[in-house]
Design brief:
It contains 17 helices and 8 strands. With 465 residues, it is an alpha/beta fold. It has an 8-stranded mixed β-sheet with strand order 3-4-2-5-1-6-7-8, sandwiched between helices. Strand 7, helix 9 and strand 8 form a beta-alpha-beta unit. It is elongated. It starts with a helix and ends in a 6-residue tail after the last helix. Bound molecules: guanosine-5'-triphosphate (GTP) and magnesium ion.
Length: 465
């Protein structure tokens, strides 16, 4: 209970930090169209991907404790279904769908974080829906059932970009389950690529769980080992890594009873793997904890990017100031020389009386002032616009790119900085930006440190504490 409360208050605090410090800056500079917190303030989500008929819906029904999703041998379900808790129904015995909503509603309701999926169009909207279910399993998380992956030729007929939808959903999700079955243990290259692109490398290992499902369909242990070997090989090819990710080996004992034709003595190995299904369920129930990690990296990533954006803009101004001082001094020296030259010429032409004559001093001073005014109007303006063009062309010079992390985050806001400087022509309210930089920088440096400390404390608490 203590752990749960601790997690909830940590979550609320992080969302409040984003809302108060990051979103106003993000929206002001067009870093994000929607409030940053809108994608993460809803409940933790678990995305379930896999080939068609790999057992996604069966697994979900098992978690929920009722037949909520349709199952079948052929590609059965071509919809993305958000399955969430209905806390308005007190009864948790007779588990059922208590409410259904269609895609149009879901994509437009600000209560849900799915507005970013609107861009996938009408066809996608008609394949997107929400089910509310009164299963206690859902009390702290939501599940997303997805249409099975097909081969890439058939994928093209869906009428929307399946890979991109998966990518966007993976970005919203706190945990992603990728299911394989023994018959198709290596045909998810494309989906894996889109996962790799969207799930940040920092959290990929923790957030993506691979599951080899339906293992009861392996005729014997050696058959299973062969399938497992093929899957490991394919995954290492896809991920480009030598180490093999952990793979849960599971099956549905209920579905197995109805379908299995293998002699039981050849399938003794199943006995040793029975606990894997339970372990998988425990990992899924840990989604709220993953949400905290996810939130922490969310704060870190966006604070870092906004920090670098503002840093670049401020650097532009401080360099412009130095440039102005330098060229002002040059102008002053030239003006003084011009004044002295005017005195010298006047004296030698006999127009002026003597060196200490007030008229002589006035004429020299006047010439210097005129020269300075001219300098400020014409050459200075020209050099300033050359300065501006130069920095727009070499915008990377505005920030030091010493580490890979700085390079990555700068890459994400480089265009934004370019557009902002171009639009404002280098004229912007400095005091406001300094203030914004101060608060974003504080979150970036101290806030993220505090969050990590709290997460470490949390990991020291026992699961049922
Ligand atoms: N033997 C066996 N059969 C299973 C297992 N899990 C699911 N099945 C069966 O496999 C078939 C497909 O299961 P689904 O749960 O519909 O698979 P899905 O991944 O949701 O499929 P799509 O929605 O079409 O992508 C059904 O007939 C299930 O009964 C399992 O662990 N073992
Ligand atoms: Mg299904």
């Amino acid at each position: 209970m203590y752990r749960k409360n601790y997690m909830n208050s940590l979550r609320t605090e992080m969302v409040a930090t984003i809302e108060e410090y990051l979103t106003p800056v993000a929206q002001k500079y067009n870093y994000s169209d929607v409030p940053l917190e809108s994608t993460i303030k809803w409940r933790p989500m678990v995305l379930i991907l896999g080939n068609y008929s790999s057992g996604k819906s069966t697994l979900i029904n098992e978690f929920l404790g009722a037949d909520i999703q349709a199952i079948g041998q052929a590609p059965t379900d071509d919809s993305f279904t958000i399955i969430t808790y209905d806390d308005s129904v007190a009864d948790t015995e007779n588990i059922r769908v208590t409410q259904e909503r269609d895609g149009k509603f879901l994509l437009n309701d600000p209560e849900y974080p799915f507005e970013i999926l609107k861009k996938h169009g009408q066809r996608f909207a008609s394949h997107f829906r929400l089910k509310k279910v009164n299963s206690p399993f859902l009390s702290n998380l939501a599940l997303i059932d997805t249409p099975g992956m097909l081969d890439s030729i058939t994928e093209r007929d869906r009428g929307y970009d399946y890979q991109k939808v998966i990518g966007d959903l993976a970005q919203l999700a706190d945990l992603v389950l990728v299911l394989f079955d023994p018959h198709k243990a290596g045909t998810v290259r494309e989906s894996h690529t889109s996962l790799r692109e969207t799930v940040s490398t920092r959290t990929f290992e923790d957030r993506v769980l691979f599951v080899l499902n339906r293992i009861d369909e392996c005729a014997s242990l050696s058959d299973l080992l062969q399938v497992y070997g093929t899957l490991c090989w394919n995954l290492s090819q896809i991920t480009g890594r030598k180490d093999i990710p952990a793979i849960h080996l599971t099956y549905s004992s209920c579905a197995a009873k109805n379908s299995n034709s293998h002699p039981p003595e050849d399938q003794n190995f199943l006995y040793y793997l029975e606990n894997q299904r339970k372990k998988l369920k425990t990992s899924v129930l840990e989604a709220p904890r993953y949400r905290l990690d996810n939130l922490a990296s969310f704060v870190e990533t966006h604070a870092e990017r906004l920090d670098h954006f503002l840093e670049a803009i401020l650097n532009y101004r401080s360099r412009l100031r130095k440039f102005r001082i330098k060229f002002g001094l040059i102008g002053l020296v030239i003006s003084l020389i011009a004044g002295a030259a005017a005195i010298f010429l006047g004296l030698s032409a006999g127009i002026l009386g003597g060196l200490y004559d007030p008229f002589t001093i006035g004429a020299g001073g006047g010439a210097a002032v005129l020269c300075m005014l001219f300098w400020m109007i014409a050459p200075m303006k020209y050099f300033k616009s050359a300065f501006h063009r130069n920095y727009l062309k070499n915008i990377d010079k505005l920030i030091s790119l010493g580490t890979q992390s700085r390079k990555d985050s700068w890459q994400a806001v480089r265009d934004l900085a370019y557009k902002y400087l171009k639009k404002t022509n280098g004229r912007f309210p400095l005091r406001d930006i300094k203030q914004e930089y101060k608060s974003v920088h504080k979150i970036f440096v101290e806030g993220t440190h505090e969050i990590r400390k709290a997460l470490n404390e949390l990991s020291n608490l026992k699961y049922n504490e």
